[in-house]
Amino acid sequence: MRTTGWWTVALTVAMTLAVGGGVGGLRAETKEEEAARYLKELKSNDPKKKALAAEGIGEIGRIKASLARPAVPLLLEALTDKNAEVRAKAATALGRVDPENKLDVAKKLAALVTNEKEEMKVKQGALAGLSALGSEARPVAKDLADYAKKIEGNDKKFATAIRNTLKNIGGKK
Question: Quick check: 107 and 136 in contact, CB under 8 A?
Answer without folding.
Answer: no
